[in-house]
Amino acid sequence: MSYLRPSFRHPLLPKNELGFTRADYEGAISTLCAGCGHDSISGAIVQACFEMALEPHRVAKLSGIGCSSKTPTYYLSHSHGFNTVHGRMPSVATGAYLANRELIYLGVSGDGDTASIGMGQFVHAIRRNLNIVYIVMNNGCYGLTKGQHSATADAGSKTKDGGLNPFEAIDLVGLALELGATFVGRSFSGDKTQLVPLIQAAMTHPGFAFIDVLSPCVTFNNKPDSTKSYDYVRAHIEATATIDFVPEKKEILVDYAEGDAREVKLHDGSMIHLRKLAPNWDPRSRTSAMNRLHDAKSRGEILTGLLYIDQDSQDLHELEQTVARPLNSLQEADLCPGSGVLAGINAKFR
User: Fold this and answer.
1) CA gyration radius, the chain
2) Which of 197, 198, 194, 229 shows the shortest CA–CA distance to 215?
3) Please, which residues have CB within 8 angstroms of residue 160's CB and are 6 or more apart in sequence?
4) Can you list the domains of the chain with their CATH numbers?
5) What's the CA gap between 66 and 72, in Å, rounded?
6) Which of 31, 172, 238, 306 has the fewest CB atoms within 10 Å, i.e. is most exposed?
7) Backbone angles phi, psi at 240, to 5 degrees
8) Which ranges in the chain belong to alpha helices (H)?
């Protein structure tokens, strides 16, 4: 069996504005289990970047440890990449972003990598409003080490060998909202129609853009009673709204159905169209998002879509008031302007 992609591709494959085909955004063939939801998320990332016509060298993909953290091998093979140790992806991403603000940072993690060993890193990345798209591939188990419960597994859920989980689950979406994340969404690996524009919107957001993606583990956690299984999610999913991402300067005609709608303008001029808004919910209100999330949980629903966005977000560089140039491009003359400048600075404090 061959695990190499064919080098020949049909010459008439569709191309984006840069002249790249979808194949230019792919990576190696996946070695994950057949049917794994993580592969669908990888496919959504490929499609999102292709449609946005991103230059691959402008993207830096980062990960930790786990099944989810293997996926950067399977997309954007021509981009920068860094696979960190378990739970430490946010700190590496912080250092990289402070050094070079011109790259688009895409971090992928798992429910173990984020909600257990990496929780402290996750919390402070939100607190600093690190400019990163942070995707958690959430399957409620440790798929790489035989299916033990993770911190997002629901109380009472069973492992494949019948073991019960006695602990309450950590809701990463609720936590992100509470901690002040400026972009919060949730999706399902089996709903690419929703996930692709959600990723595109996150990539244009200046700040911490968090997407929790329910991604069933077909080997250890796809049982009928599992809340992270394909059947359960499909039966209980509740979308906040239908999402359309409209890039800046690109005319698009959308057939809007009847019902309430919102248009959210992003910093680069792109737009998010939200159709058929859920009742009593405004994506620009953190309180509204939290109330809607609790309401869905009380009814046994899994709320998906764009839950909250701060249109006035200031990312880490803005909060620190750094220079506009990437820090890794500063020369000695920029960093050491001379004794005269230093004397003038000292004089201001006398």
Assistant:
1) 21
2) 229
3) 147, 220, 221, 223
4) 22-320 (3.40.50.970)
5) 12
6) 31
7) -65, -40
8) 37-52, 67-70, 89-99, 111-115, 119-127, 172-179, 192-203, 230-236, 286-298, 316-320, 332-335, 339-348
Question: Both tokens of residue 339?
Answer: 């004794």
Question: How would you classify residue 250: left for phi > 0, otherwise alpha for psi between -120 and 50, otherwise beta?
Answer: beta
| Burial category of 301 from C-beta neighbours within 10 Å (exposed 0-12, middle 13-18, buried 19 and up) | middle
Largest CA distance in the chain: 75
pLDDT digits over 56-89, tens only? 999 999 999 999 999 999 999 999 999 999 999 9
pLDDT per residue as tens digits for the range 148-188: 888 998 888 877 777 788 899 899 999 999 999 999 999 99
Report the distance separating Cα 161 and Cα 155, nearest Å: 16
Kindly state the tokens that stand for 85: 């140790």
Beta bridge mates, 30: none
Residue in 199, 193, 266 with CA at minimum distance from that of residue 52: 199
**pTM, to two decimals:** 0.89
Instruction: Decide the pairing of beta strands 261-265 and 271-275.
Output: antiparallel
DSSP 231-299: HHHHHHEEES-EEEEE-TT------PPSS-EEEEE-TTS-EEEEESPPTT--TT-HHHHHHHHHHHHHT
